Amino acid sequence: MIREYTTQRTLNPKLWNDGQLRPKLRAGFLKIANEFYKFLDVDATVKDIIIIGSSANYNWTKHSDIDLHVVINYGQVGDNLHLVKNYMHAKKSIWNENYPLSFKGMNIELYAQDVNEKLHSTVASYSLMQDKWLTKPTADMVSIDDTIIQQKAEPYEYEIDSLKASDPHIEKKIQSIKNRLHHLRQTGLDAEGEYSIENMAYKHLRNQGYLERLKRLEQKVTMGRLSVENAVNEFNIPKMIDKGKSQVKGFMDAMKNETLETKQEWSWVRGQMKDVVKLLGLTTVAVAPGGSLLAILAKALKVDKYMLPSSFKKTDEKEVTESLIMHVTKKKPLDASGWDNIMKKTNAVETPQGQWEHPGRCTMIPSNAITMKHVAYPVLGIDDTGHMQMMQPEQQYEYPGSRVFEIPHTAQWQTMIMQLQNAIKNGTRYAK
């Protein structure tokens, strides 16, 4: 038998006494929930604070989490409920990452639940605010054939076991498995609730470590893809051959007219170009003087997307850089329409998940609290008041404004970042 799917004779005695939550625990959980609510930083009334899941039922185990939900009305937070839900998920992730709370070996998982979210009838829930059961659990034995659960889980086990980081289609395969797992669990919960075969198969995969393995593999693949070396290796060399002398002439003309780049920027550009040439096996050319190197490389590759200075790039990037410089130096702060223009020209997306959801892409975070946990590269952050800071991996940051525009410190955005830093180097305003 799989223990998680057999009911116990009593509720977890570490939490409950004669069907009631132990008074000291209730006080402690209410205090934790209150701190989590303040951390959410939203103007929404707390409707209730509840405990749900196996810790509020007879199918608990020593591995069960204590699921503590703060119930609010998402509609009071914003009209875009999808965005609000994503924001709550992001807040949950940041909280659980920074405050890994537990009680006697059981993790305390917090989440902001929408008051309009209806729980399945089999899901027991206990109100901390009212100190009573909203839906009382029963100790009925759930008779499920473990063989059926195993049969449902085995195809996923095989797929996850077969995943290789070197597979060129690995990201599509991971996303496909994640989508099907989500569908598997949701289908079971909607149809039969907590004890459905589908939900039990999902929990089996979780308990056996398959979901964690999938998560870690996805992180490994993403970090590998974002490395500068791999970004260069992803060039399709045959397609990068110069199609005509006009491109070389345009390159050289742009170089002659270039006025914005500093010696530091050109040093970086030449270094990046040498690395590319070395990767192509042209070691001798890589040590050529800067000017001839630029001309040779321009003839061989289309590198403007990744490393060319500002006048070699599209006019849009120049306009964006100049607008951001005016904003951070307080000469001309960006208004709503200015930010819309920046977002459009950089193909940025507004999301509370930021680099987690869109690695390597410019993003707008609808919050002043930024976490760099699990982000593999630095990110330049600029808030709506003009405060700017280079954020480092695994650190936490807070800005004085209400939104933060993120520019990832990758090859594509390197020149823009250096121009911003150079423009405000003397007596500039950074977020501290």
Count of distinct structural domains: 4
Structural class based on helices, strands and sheet pairing: alpha+beta
Helix content: 40-55%
Q: What's the arrangement of strands in the largest beta sheet?
A: 5-6-4-3-7-8
Strand residues, percent:
5-15%
Regarding CATH, which class of the largest domain? Alpha Beta
Main sheet characteristics = 6 strands, mixed
Number of strands: 15
Tell me, what's the shape?
globular
- Given as residue ranges, the uncertain stretches (5+ residues, pLDDT < 50) are 239-252, 254-266, 272-313, 427-432
Radius of gyration (Å): 27 Å
Q: What name is given to the CATH topology of the largest domain?
A: Beta Polymerase, domain 2
* CATH architecture classification name of the largest domain: 2-Layer Sandwich
| Separation of the first and last Cα atoms | 55 Å
Mean pLDDT: 77
Total number of helices = 16
Note the main attributes of this structure.
single chain, 432 residues, alpha+beta, Beta Polymerase, domain 2, five-stranded mixed beta sheet, 16 helices
Written overview of the protein:
The chain is of the alpha+beta class and 432 residues long. It folds into four domains: 3-135, Beta Polymerase, domain 2 (2-Layer Sandwich), CATH 3.30.460; 146-226; 234-309, no CATH class; 315-423, no CATH class. It contains 16 helices and 15 strands. The protein has helices spanning 23-40, 74-77, 81-98, 146-162, 170-191, 197-207, 210-226, 228-233, 245-257, 263-279, 283-286, 290-300, 304-307, 315-328, 336-345, 414-423; strands spanning 16-17, 20-21, 48-52, 66-72, 102-103, 106-114, 125-127, 132-135, 349-350, 363-365, 369-371, 379-383, 388-391, 396-398, 404-408. The chain has a six-stranded mixed β-sheet. It has a five-stranded mixed β-sheet with strand order 9-10-15-12-13, with no helix packed on it. A hairpin with a 2-residue loop joins strand 1 and strand 2. Helix 5 crosses helix 6 (197-207), helix 9 runs antiparallel to helix 12 (290-300) and helix 14 runs antiparallel to helix 15. The longest helix has 22 residues, at 170-191. The radius of gyration is 27 Å and the shape is globular.
